[in-house]
Amino acid sequence: MTEALTNAAARELIAFRIGEQEFCVDIMSVREIRGWTPATPLPRTPSYLKGVINLRGAVLPIVDLGARFGLRTAEPTARHVIMVAHIAGRLVGLLVDAVSDIIQLDEGAVQPTPDVASEEVRAFVKGIFAVDGRLISLIDPSLILPAMEAEAA
């Protein structure tokens, strides 16, 4: 019975890189991972919105996560990937440098975001944990798009 409880407490996460930093999201929010496709820019959108692409007949907005997190704006190349995620009831493409791992994580391993982090950082990062000597930030994908922009996307 203890093993069943341990398995129930474990989560699968997809780890990805933006620059030298590693982040992860719950695997259940990611629908697919695809290579970079040039996006069509839209007028009067936030700087982190790269534009839209056609995904099997549906218009998919592409969010540059580096720019959204305030790290850096990506100049996408063939090496970049788009994680198609289900966020706030919509499909959104998340532009990242690379997807690196699928991680099994015990909920008890997640440490709270340090108090020295700004409120903006704490809005995205729900916790930090160590895997093989690396620190990975756990992201809440529902907070990537602000509420009003999520409805407009």
Describe the structure in your own words.
The chain has helices at residues 2-9, 65-68, 119-124, 147-152, and strands at 10-18, 21-26, 30-35, 49-55, 58-64, 81-87, 90-96, 98-106, 125-131, 134-139. Residues 1-7 and 148-153 have low confidence and may be disordered. It contains four helices and ten strands, in the order αβββββαβββαββα. By secondary structure, the chain is an alpha+beta fold.
Structural topology:
Layout: H1 2-9, E1 10-18, E2 21-26, E3 30-35, E4 49-55, E5 58-64, H2 65-68, E6 81-87, E7 90-96, E8 98-106, H3 119-124, E9 125-131, E10 134-139, H4 147-152
Parallel strand pairs: 2-10, 5-7
Antiparallel strand pairs: 1-2, 1-8, 3-6, 4-5, 6-7, 9-10
Labels describing this entry:
10 strands; globular; about 150 residues
